[in-house]
Amino acid sequence: MVTSNIDALGIIFPNSYDNQVPELVNERLMASIPFASRYRMIDFILSSMVNCGLDNISVIVRKNYRSLIRHLGSGREWDLIRKNGGLNVVPPFAEKTVKIYNGRVEALASILDFLSIQKEKYVIISDANIALNFDFNDMLAAHIKNNADVTIAYKKEPIPYGFMNLQPTLTTDLYYTLQTDENNRVTEIETNPKDYGPQNFSMNIYLIERELLIEEITKAYAKGYVYFERDILAPQLDKLHVNGYEFTGYSARISDVKGYFDENMRLLENGNLDELFGHAPIYTKIRDDNPTRYIGNAKIRNTMVADGCVIEGEVENCILFRGVKVGKGAKLKNCLIMQDTVIEDNAELEYVITDKDVTITSGKSVHGNDSFPVFIPAYKRV
Prior knowledge:
By secondary structure, the protein is of the alpha/beta class. The chain has helices at residues 42-51, 66-72, 104-109, 112-116, 136-145, 161-164, 210-222, 228-233, 257-266, 272-277; strands spanning 8-13, 34-35, 39-40, 56-60, 86-90, 122-127, 130-132, 150-157, 176-180, 186-191, 199-209, 242-246, 251-253, 293-294, 299-301, 304-305, 310-311, 314-316, 319-320, 325-326, 331-333, 336-337, 342-343, 348-350, 352-354, 359-360, 365-367, 374-376. It folds into 2 domains: 8-277, Spore Coat Polysaccharide Biosynthesis Protein SpsA, Chain A; 293-376, UDP N-Acetylglucosamine Acyltransferase, domain 1, CATH 2.160.10. Helix content is 20%, strand content 27%. It is globular. 46% of the residues are buried.
């Protein structure tokens, strides 16, 4: 763990883009979706904050947060058990001012009293739908060097298909692209563009001085504004100095269920795992599982396997989460198998996503394809 502290507190929005993956958030939220065999999506942004010295981090939840609270616990795995600061999960109605929010403005307005008594100079705001290893110290250095009021992290990449089909409603999370000048100052923020090819695609990671954030949220909430980016930043680009910060590292953005499948599978390609995990540690909840056992004629090829699995069959190009059991004669190819799923003897699966605690019965054959992987909900027996 990092011992020197950055002069900033963190705020994470774990429900952002829940509406993009309805199959995966029936009993959880975006932040607690499993990823990369043993992690949850929130582990990446939370670990990045901790690795850069943040020790005062709030998670403002909207709904379906039970699994997230179980996962985070007291924050021990992230070294966030502190007398002052630490990990602060804010559920709806935790205080009189906290309610089920629609947009970022309402959420931040609900914790203004909390923000006003904090000591940190800066606030880092982020969603939890991107798996990445982020250096906030470098972002802060760029923010200070550019004398910026707000710094927005972005990545040059195409807009995912899942976002292209997004239909805005009051409770929809919007997406944004940035136009910047030669000094990386943001000159335009576009909301839900449909442009093809690489864009300056906002990562919804923001750095702003705490006092300025309080001032802007207070004014915006009084006017009934909903969105931080569209309603506060975009109309004030001539008044506020908003700078872009290009992130060039590895990232996996979840935009829909197909994108979730693809981003997991991309980790099986050469070099990607090291790019995501090699720069700084990613922490997660510890589960006391036995080491994975390979029994009899088990065959494994190009597969990521977590602890606690028992494999007797053939597995190729798959991601297996904790506690998965693959029976004798079973064949899995191009599959994403979440925790504690049981694949019985002689079953065959290809291009399948199983949620947790699924049972695939003996001899069953389930086949999707690269364009449409089959999704099997949690606790289902097939």
